[in-house]
Design brief:
The chain is mostly helical. The chain is about 85% helix and about 0% strand.
Length: about 210
Amino acid sequence: MSTAVDSISHEHGDYAGSKIGMWLFLLTEIVLFGGLFLLYSVFRSSNAVAFHNAATELNAGIGALNTLILLTSSLAMALAVSAVQKGEVRAATVSLSVTIVLGLVFLVSKYAEWSEKIHHGIYPNSPELGLRDYGEGLFYSLYYVMTGLHGLHVLGGIVALIVMLVLLRRGAVGRDDFAKIENTGLYWHLVDLIWIFLFPLFYLIT
């Protein structure tokens, strides 16, 4: 009896520890992007007209589509975690796969958007931006840095999701051990939440 109680206590401690560790990691991510958001606000306040002119060149429709893609992926991720907790491996596999595909679609969309801007000579220190107001160069520098960093986080999330999918298929993640996929889900939701802030900053506030 004592052994069983100790085992339950140990498992609970491991779960609580992994959750605390994950929240601490997410906190560092919030601080990182929070600093970038603050930097954006400072530069925007002193270059309002230039930021307005630069923002009008971004496609708000594509930004909205990317937002819809990530919101849908968050829903699929939540369904995957719920399915794992219920022991529904097939449903969890489908939901995880959908999340991965949507993440890849988002990255392809951002790649296409970046490629179009670069093709038109709009990138940091480009001759085209050199002919414009200094503030427009600042806007696009922040745009590439912040959306690029976010894209790397999406890529990292996709890699983590693929690992979770493999572990799920091998039975290493399941109803009795779902902390890993739950933590991965928290990370994915944070990545999506960051984009919800990036979208209006660059595409809507003109």
